[in-house]
Write a sequence for this structure.
């Protein structure tokens, strides 16, 4: 079985020119936790997840080793949480998205897809064909299609 046989072709995505507000609205509206970012030609340029947003709005800490080899935590980013969350909304999605991301190709085997999802501990993978986004596969998709005839 190949990726295109189980992928969802109706992909929720955002354009590279959109802001983080668009991403958050799609996360909430569709109950998802990540989505691909594409250009006008539907080429995948980046991937953004709820973890990317959490890392940005979370309190930043810098770790410094002093002369006695103790690790001191220096609290950075004194901006209140609500303000950090509000500030991120109008930022371009590419400011916080991962430009290095993993994707699979439409004809990759399900075994390969399962291995990538498991080894990299990620929830879903964009599927590409001829350089453009054609679908998305989640861990749940692989489980459902792998075991539906065995149960």
């Amino acid at each position: 079985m190949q990726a295109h046989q189980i992928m969802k072709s109706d992909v929720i995505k955002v354009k590279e020119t959109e802001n983080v507000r668009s991403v958050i609205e799609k996360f909430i509206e569709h109950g998802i936790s990540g989505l691909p970012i594409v250009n006008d030609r539907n080429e995948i340029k980046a991937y953004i997840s709820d973890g990317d947003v959490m890392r940005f709005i979370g309190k930043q800490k810098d770790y410094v080793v002093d002369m006695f080899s103790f690790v001191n935590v220096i609290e950075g980013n004194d901006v209140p949480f609500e303000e950090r969350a509000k500030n991120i909304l109008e930022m371009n999605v590419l400011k916080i998205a991962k430009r290095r991301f993993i994707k699979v190709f439409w004809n990759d085997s399900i075994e390969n897809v399962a291995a990538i999802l498991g080894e990299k501990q990620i929830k879903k993978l964009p599927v590409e064909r001829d350089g453009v986004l054609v679908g998305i596969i989640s861990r749940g998709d692989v489980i459902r299609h792998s075991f539906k005839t065995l149960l």
In short: Residues 62-76 have pLDDT under 50 and may be disordered. The two ends are 18 Å apart (CA to CA). Helices lie at 3-6, 20-30, 50-57, 81-88, 110-120, 139-147.
